[in-house]
TrEMBL record:
It comes from the Bacteria. Pfam families: Tautomerase_2. InterPro entries: Tauto_MSAD, Tautomerase/MIF_sf. Gene3D superfamilies: Macrophage Migration Inhibitory Factor (3.30.429.10). This is Tautomerase family protein. Coiled coil: none annotated. It comes from Vibrio ulleungensis.
Amino acid sequence: MILIYGIKERLNPIKAELSDVIHQTMSEVLGLPEDKRAHRFIPMNAEDFYAPGGRSASYTVIEINLMQGREVTTKKALIKTLFTNINAKLGIAPIDIEITLHEQPPHCWGFRGMTGDEARDLNYKVKV
């Protein structure tokens, strides 16, 4: 599950394209299949979305929830590739993008009536 926050006037017009860029990057770096897109956009009023100094109105926060298991080099590649791809496709400068990865053990995930550690039919690898 990926949560994307931004000022609604900036985020709403680019939601579909940003979702495509994020998912393409997740597929490229993590090997996620096309049908594993779970994005939640949270457009906010400017007065409710405080940003660090030096950021523009395009400041965007991306929180990515993952099952534990990816290598540090893989996670760093994901973050850096997201910066590059979002800048190239949408023109949002890396200074205006904040990315956090939240990892939980597989037993903390619940989907399709089971926990992540019980799933034996995932069509992607977690240990990459």
